[in-house]
Amino acid sequence: MLDYQELFEKIPDGITLHDAEDASVIDANEQFCEMLDYTRSELLELGFEDFILNEPPYTIERAEEYIQKAATDGPQTFEWRDETKAGDPIPVEVHLRQTNLDDRQCILAVVRNITDRKERERELKRKNERLEEFASVVSHDLRNPLNVAQGRLDLVREECDSDHLAAITRAHERMETLIEDLLTLAREGDTTLKLEEVTLADVIARCWQNVETAEATLHIDTTHTIQADHARLQQLLENLIRNAIEHGGADVTVRVSDLVDGFFFEDNGPGIPEETRERIFEAGYSTLNEGTGYGLQIANEIAVVYGWNITVSDADDGGARFEITGVTLNE
């Protein structure tokens, strides 16, 4: 038995050993044999070209190029398509490196079956396509009739005055808010983050200016500089601010301060009953008749994208306290 054989069989991935000059198969572990449904003796009688797909871009010529580069330029990592004994293609990730065995130059190939990964990628792509289609429908099919209704309302105001017009205006504003929230949720299908150094206090102050805060008061007690996507962080904070204003009233006091691995956001409003805390991040859940129920869900979804945790508890003065932890801080 070859000295490396025990190592071969302990590694969960498939492994093949090739001659560096002609790429012939010197050895293969049991995992690789099972992956392609060959016996070891069958594989050793084959050339490497017999178990690759050999369809563009996974051709014999390109495989030979990778093997040559592993011998001359160093380790190579790439995705590939092998072919089972039955002729079925199988997606794999291949790591090639040169090694010596009994003074013989060889190429060691570690081959991982990535079928499950590729299926997850396809499912994520399908999900994002559906979300993009949904966002397009929301943007076009809902905004257009809303714009018409708002235009007609302006014309009615020029012709008459009625207490009903204010109610119609509020209904339009709620529809606009709902559309914006739905679009934001749809965009959360894109988990790409553009991380940069962000001064938390500056972003909070800017968010406060962007939201209608009436007579509310803001106390900023944070000195943290964090790694964050500015746009996503702004969405998270603005939704927390709106939630405080909507539930705490026009004169609510909001305070933001530091935690060891993040920050907290609290108000002196009525707080959130313990029995409803598990539901506040659910889509559409709201304790207010005029609430859309999406604001806190959006905040939570953004935290999830970051890998942060957002929890709710009682503030010292009885209001709601949201703690955002797992944040990367800059020293």
From TrEMBL:
EC identifiers of the protein: 2.7.13.3
Superkingdom in the source lineage: Archaea
First and last residue of the signal peptide: none
Pfam family, one: HisKA
InterPro entries: HATPase_C_sf, HATPase_dom, His_kinase_dom, HisK_dim/P_dom, HisK_dim/P_sf, PAS, PAS-like_dom_sf, Sensor_HK_Regulatory
CDD domains in alphabetical order: HATPase (cd00075), HisKA (cd00082), PAS (cd00130)
Domain spans labelled Histidine kinase: 137-325
Catalytic activity: ATP + protein L-histidine = ADP + protein N-phospho-L-histidine
SMART domains found in the cross-reference section: HATPase_c, HisKA, PAS
NCBIfam families listed in its UniProt record: sensory_box
Alphabetical list of PANTHER family matching this protein: HISTIDINE KINASE 1 (PTHR43711:SF1), TWO-COMPONENT HISTIDINE KINASE (PTHR43711)
Protein name in the entry: histidine kinase
Species for this entry: Halopenitus persicus
